[in-house]
Write a structure and sequence with these properties.
8-stranded antiparallel sheet; globular; about 280 residues; Putative glucose-6-phosphate 1-epimerase; carbohydrate binding; 21 strands; Gal_mutarotase_sf_dom; 9-stranded antiparallel sheet; EC 5.1.3.15; mainly beta
Length: about 280
Amino acid sequence: MKSLITQTTFHGLPAIQVRTADGAEATVSLFGGQVLHWQPAGGRPWLYLSEQSAFDGKHAIRGGVPVCFPQFAAQGDLPRHGLVRTRPWRLIDQREVDKQVMLTLGIDSDDDTLALWPHLFALELTINIGGARLDMELEITNTGPDAFGFSAALHTYLRVGEVEMAELHGLKGLRYADACDGGTIKTDPMDMLRVDDPVDRIYADARRPLLLDDSGRHLQIEKENFPDVVVWNPWEAGAAALADLPDRDFRRMLCVEAAATAPIMLAADAQWWGRQSLIVGD
């Protein structure tokens, strides 16, 4: 059996649907260059997607894996999370290798981005889908004559059965900035993180793999070259304040993001890359 790769629309937006030869599934939106759905072979979906997202080709899609560049969150003068999650990407390549599907998407600077941020860039997002894993690699190229600084993230919304029961392991002993406490720097003393209040943390220099235990099903979260991990859940009041998130859906999602939140300097003609892997465990 061969893998199926279909160019289609999803809620009216151009998208690519994938079903690999071994039964894994994914939906990737060309608006925002965003993985919206991933279901490993023989398993259940692992990405959260809000049913109240606008899907209007103007506003960011709430869920999946948005790409943040060249700004993380509101840490600058650009639109929140930067310039590329609300713009059209293009499909550069698609292929099947050993029952897995690899898609490469791209986006370049243009007059609209230059009006907001005066730097030339080219981004490629390579997505590998197959079996029990989803791999995403973001490559950033400075195509202009001058160096620039950027931050970036793969803003991953994970689907959980009940966030208060989910356990995130691997953060013990790491220092983090707590945005829910004015950015205070703290050290995590806990063997696992359980969410029972709003959480908005940037864990710096978080190099080791994480493990999410979602009431007995397990997901290993690995990354390369992204120095930080961001953990976010808006909780009840925060969800109610977001028009594109159902009030109760804070219980169904937990953002665990591969990120580079401090500016990275990129010389002219230079490249930077960062990778995130989601791997289903026993």
